[in-house]
From TrEMBL:
The keyword Transmembrane helix applies. Keywords: Golgi apparatus, Membrane, Signal, Transmembrane, Transmembrane helix. The chain crosses the membrane at residues 6-24, 54-71. The lineage of its organism: Eukaryota, Metazoa, Ecdysozoa, Arthropoda, Hexapoda. It is found in: Golgi apparatus membrane. Belongs to the KISH family. InterPro entries: KISH_domain, Ksh1. GO terms for cellular component: Golgi membrane. It is a single-pass type I membrane protein. This is Protein kish. Involved in the early part of the secretory pathway. It comes from the Eukaryota. Pfam families: DUF1242.
Length: 72
């Protein structure tokens, strides 16, 4: 089943994208920051969410990991 049709998989993909974009921005800020608009601007926005809401993203990642480990 595709991640688009399974809500739990869709949330996992979104959380992984947020964490990956925030990590890549910490390593290579020029790559993420030069694309603030357009289609590649989504990665900049995900990186900003990961940086500004990092405690909430971390809690969401822990909850998602626990749900995948114990309830799937």
């Amino acid at each position: 089943m595709s991640a688009l049709f399974n809500f739990q998989s869709l949330l996992s993909v979104i959380l992984l994208m947020i964490c990956t974009c925030a990590y890549l921005r910490s390593l290579f800020p020029s790559i993420i920051d030069r694309n603030k608009t357009g289609l590649l601007g989504v990665f900049w926005k995900l990186a900003r969410i990961g940086e500004r809401k990092s405690p909430y993203v971390a809690v969401a990642c822990v909850i998602m990991a626990a749900s995948l480990l114990f309830w799937t």
